[in-house]
Design goal:
By secondary structure, the protein is α+β, with helices and mostly antiparallel strands. It contains five helices and 16 strands. The model has no long low-confidence stretch (mean pLDDT 97).
């Protein structure tokens, strides 16, 4: 059976691009690995944050658009995005988040301790210590590699039909169900990061797309050949995937599973250094070739943003 290695990336909607950069790069210490535009709506940034090189399983991406309405987290969405941190770093993160005015709470799920909090737009995030996964060598502000976020621990899905979503994870994507506890089903992939998916089993409100919600979750395909095999499998099972779309840094197909969540399958290659050197990632506005002729117009219309050291780290 063909199996995904786990999460490739997660994409969410927010309002203010500078506030978004300040939080994910400034507070959480992730690297802005790509500053580009939404290929379907070029007047909107598409910002990518991850580990030092933006490896699959570490990257969260955003469509920041000030005009979009506030969304509501609920059924048919990713409810919580979980990040993996090194063992022994949970206290550092609790103190750091509080220093920047972020309210933190604690929870326990499947025997693991989580620190839960919201980003400035209301996205629900959590941190959990995991031994799996490589250390993130990116240093930013007050975050050093020994405490830095490694990448995704996983995600919690809020499905309108949890059993249908569970069937897709297990029998299409090839994840293994490893537990059922207090209203959650837990699945795991073979990867060392982005590998644990929980499905919430208790009822929730219907999700509304907008700022502060996840747009989609993407799963890994090792290459384009495997992506086409995924697409053929999805067609055979009646999921009506899109055509293969070129996103410059990966190729992808999209489909809605029966619980209402938008899934994507994306290739690991070519990655974020395909159009700029690794040491320059995220510094310049990068455009696909078909929009390069509009660079001046786009640079003038998009708001000016930058990665900056926050006052609390100076």
């Amino acid at each position: 059976m063909q199996r995904t290695a786990g999460i490739h990336h997660i994409t969410a909607m927010v309002n203010d691009p500078q506030r978004n950069i300040d939080f994910y790069a400034g507070v959480l210490g992730l690297r802005l690995v790509k500053k580009t535009i939404n290929f379907d709506r070029p007047e909107v940034y598409h910002l990518y944050f991850g580990n030092e090189t933006g490896e699959p399983g570490t990257v969260i991406t955003f469509f920041p658009w000030p005009k979009q309405l506030k969304g509501r987290i609920g059924m048919g969405q990713v409810g919580v995005t979980s990040y993996s941190i090194p063992p022994g770093s949970l206290q550092f993160w609790e103190e750091r988040l509080r220093k920047f005015g972020v309210e933190v709470k604690s929870s326990i799920r499947f025997g693991e301790s989580y620190v839960t909090f919201n980003d400035p737009d209301g996205l629900e995030l959590e941190l959990v210590e995991r031994r799996e996964g490589q250390i993130n060598n990116w240093s930013s502000g007050g975050v050093k590699p020994k405490d830095a976020i490694k990448g995704f621990a996983g995600a919690t899905l809020i499905s309108a039909q949890p059993n249908k979503t569970a069937d897709v994870l297990e029998n299409v994507l090839g994840l293994t169900c490893i537990g059922d506890e207090e209203g959650f089903l837990r699945f795991k992939s073979d990867a060392s990061i982005g590998n644990v998916i929980d499905i919430k089993l208790t009822p929730s409100v219907r999700g509304l797309m907008g700022a502060g919600t996840v747009h989609h979750i993407a799963w890994r395909a090792k290459d384009e050949e495997e992506l086409f095999r995924w697409r053929n499998l999805l067609q055979e099972k009646g999921y009506h995937p899109t055509e293969v779309r070129d996103r410059n840094y990966f190729k992808a197909v999209y489909f809605h599973e029966e619980g209402g969540i938008l899934f994507e399958i994306a290739t690991d290659p070519p990655g974020f250094s395909v159009d700029e050197p690794t040491n320059e990632l995220g510094k310049k506005l990068m455009l696909p070739t078909w929009l390069e002729s509009k660079r001046k117009e786009l640079e003038e219309s998009l708001p000016s943003v930058e990665v900056r050291v926050l006052e609390g780290d100076k």
